[in-house]
Sequence to fold (264 residues):
Amino acid sequence: MWLYFLSLCGGGAAILYVLCGWLIPAAVEGSPRLTLLWHDFILEQILNALTWSTRPQRLLKAVQKKATRGDPQSVISAIDNFCRHKEWAMNVGDEKGAILDCVVSEVNPSTALELGTYCGYSTVRIARLLPPETRLITLEFNPDYAVVARQVIAWAGLQDKVELVVGASGDLIPQMKQQFGVKEFDFVFLDHWKDRYLLDIKLLEECGLLRRGTVLLADNVICPGTPEYLEYVRTNPRYESRYFKSHLEYTKVEDGLEKSIFLG
Ligand SMILES: C[S@@+](CC[C@H](N)C(=O)[O-])C[C@H]1O[C@@H](n2cnc3c(N)ncnc32)[C@H](O)[C@@H]1O
Fold:
């Protein structure tokens, strides 16, 4: 009787594992909406309930287990491995991350702003490429994500290069000059909620935080998509804009980054 019950449980668990690990991800891969719904909502809720933990906490554990303290590249690899093989997460990811690396290296900014920290993956990617005196300010309005991000950034040994501020971009951008002593940003990475991109680029303009030559790099311009922002930077004579085609992090769904240079 017990043997029957145990084999029933084992069989059920194996079927669930195959369904959630392979069959459903493969089935939703053709649809950007279903892919996001599955990875970013349904599976996350299931795993949260099963493990009594959050996705950022699980990601942090993977970093602490697999990455070497003080080695940013090992932190990036640990997160990419976790997200490719265990659990998807909304980091910019390895494929678009390589484009982000190229743009950051090319701009070589003295002052940089990131909108949307999440667990600190892109923060680590950007900060590891910055010269010692450079300042990266990253904004995150979810305090639970910020707690994890601080630990990920510290594990990479980059805490002295990064100022993580907890709050909403719409409230913090107007305080950048007075409260944070920023004159202008050389580089801005937009990767927060997509309906804020257009509002915040206009806010950055109004607050005088963009200079001639400031580079803005926007993630997820196709999936989930930021059509109003794209139209603005592509049709506005104050910007020179270019699209970099890629894929939504850790999937085959099309996504890309928009690089826009502010012309003053
Ligand atoms: C896509 S995730 C960022 C991923 C991160 N840049 C990376 O690649 O590792 C978006 C994050 O932006 C945060 N966020 C969304 N809207 C925001 C806002 N208006 N101000 C500050 N943070 C925001 C969310 O809480 C979420 O953690």
Observations:
- The first strand starts at residue 111 and ends at 115.
- The chain has a mean pLDDT of 93.
- The beta strands are 111-115, 135-140, 162-166, 185-190, 210-218, 239-247, 254-262.
